[in-house]
Amino acid sequence: MTVSERAHELAIVAAQAAADKKAQDIVIIDVGDQLAITDAFLLAAAPNERQVLAIVDAIEEALLDLPEKAKPVRREGERGGRWVLLDYVDVVVHVQHTEEREFYALDRLWKDCPTIPFVDRDLASAEAAAGSGE
């Protein structure tokens, strides 16, 4: 895996922020061996423009709350709310409307790259509680 510790931290925190806003199909792709400009892509989808923007705002807020704050060097696509890109240098976040996610299929484009495991902490907690009989 070629992802730096910082990129891993940013990607996991951003993914959890997206999950907290009910993002769908969250995937972190390690593109470090393929691209010199970033270590990872975070992909997330939402069924409508309002939710896309809410997810983007939550990600930005979560990364600003880190002890070593992270601000995007570039933010694109906000006006339409169909595909917003946040460039944190180490990680590039793509939050897409579900239709764009299916059409552009970034997952397939980068299918040869390894993924970084992410499990929504709320889902993990629910599964643990169900497993323990609570």
TrEMBL record:
GO biological process terms held by the UniProt record: cytosolic ribosome assembly; negative regulation of ribosome biogenesis; negative regulation of translation
Major localisation: cytoplasm
Keyword vocabulary terms for this entry: Cytoplasm, Repressor, Translation regulation
Cellular compartments annotated: Cytoplasm
Repressor recorded as keyword: yes
InterPro entries per UniProt: Iojap/RsfS/C7orf30, NT_sf
GO terms, molecular function: ribosomal large subunit binding
One Pfam match: RsfS
GO cellular component entries: cytoplasm
Protein role: Functions as a ribosomal silencing factor. Interacts with ribosomal protein uL14 (rplN), blocking formation of intersubunit bridge B8. Prevents association of the 30S and 50S ribosomal subunits and the formation of functional ribosomes, thus repressing translation.
The protein's assembly and partners: Interacts with ribosomal protein uL14 (rplN).
Similarity remark: Belongs to the Iojap/RsfS family.
Protein name: Ribosomal silencing factor RsfS
Organism whose genome encodes this protein: Micromonospora sediminimaris
Gene: rsfS
